[in-house]
Hydroxylase
Amino acid sequence: MGTQSSAALRVPLIDSAILAADHPGVADLFAVLAYGEISAFYRLAEEAKLSPTLRGKVAVAKMAAAEMAHFETLEAALASTGADIFDAMAPFVRALDAYHASTDPSTWLESMVKFYVGDGIAADFYTEIAGALSPEVAAVVQDVLAETSHSEFVVEEVRKAVAVSRSERDRLTLWGRRLLGEAITQAQYVMAQRDELTDLVLTATGDLNGIAELFERMQTSHAERMAVLGL
Amino acid sequence: MGTQSSAALRVPLIDSAILAADHPGVADLFAVLAYGEISAFYRLAEEAKLSPTLRGKVAVAKMAAAEMAHFETLEAALASTGADIFDAMAPFVRALDAYHASTDPSTWLESMVKFYVGDGIAADFYTEIAGALSPEVAAVVQDVLAETSHSEFVVEEVRKAVAVSRSERDRLTLWGRRLLGEAITQAQYVMAQRDELTDLVLTATGDLNGIAELFERMQTSHAERMAVLGL
């Protein structure tokens, strides 16, 4: 997340400032979240083909529909900043598509772990950022990241499978690590490209040390989520 | 719709009766609608690959999410009848999958026409049936069939394309006819298999003449919808 390129990062003027809704990074934040929702929608719909049952397909379709409800919230929030959502999303298409291409699940269980773990990593990151934003911006971010009841389905499916298969458990444990690694790689790529977003994250976390600590907390949460899945 | 097999159809006992919510055909009706929504969801997600733009993909994802909102309404309605939704949907999987397989769009415009026309045909049919149902059942059916604002996007896309290309217009006109034909074929197949549903339709329409008149009205509405698309 830019810790290797500190020279390129500006020192924040105000420590832990409450950012105004019109900080230019806010439109970027809504846009990257919005493209995240639309790409998650299509990946889920595609990955549902791996489902062995209609029950699984229905569960995935509900998850995907929930992503679109979040997309519409972000679309409305972006419209209120005066930005065109398609222009605003364009800079994030490459990184998010690359994340999904590099973490293409080959089994139903990999797909379920990806949904749960990927959503969790994103929620950890954006929720921390939201804490430093103006209340109206924070409300939008928290709303679209709220965990839904759909994750119960995923937890059940994965726990059941790994309880009876040690090799499945080992495979999915490695898969979870890869998801975290790829997410961080693509987040770094995005930050390197988008000064306003980097500014916003730096202001939210305080300084480069703050970013490093945020990443440590995210790794801890990731490990906790893996444990919930029995991994 | 069974007009060729009148011997197999029972004569309704009550002419244009208001059906009770516990008519066994009501669970069938909710179930066929529910599987219609889930299969439409996945077809839309698949067909969105044909979209030349991200704008088109977003529009389709919103349509698909709206289908899932309808699915959840039907799931709740079915639960209130005591039926398991997966058991209830099972008899309709083959016919609806066959409809989609036989009308697999090969272009983005075919996909858009299919969405608009297919939804319209289904709405015409089920709305007429709903008129004869108890108010609480009718409310569920009308709710899930209500036209959404998404269809404006489809109308615009198709009208724009056919205004500048006569060959495209001719091709999509034929495509629209094929959609109606395939929908009627699969509806007949379903009716032949499901006595309770046939009973419900017969009661709603009065008799076999009523069914024939319903089909004539559906063809008129279909022609009107095609005209809206510029076809």
Remarks:
- The domain at 22-228 of chain B is CATH 1.20.1260.10 (Ferritin).
- Residues 106 and 201 of chain B are 34 Å apart (CA to CA).
- The interface with chain A takes residues 38, 41-42, 45-46, 48, 54-55, 57-58, 61-62, 64-65, 68-69, 71-72, 86, 89, 93 of chain B (CB under 8 Å).
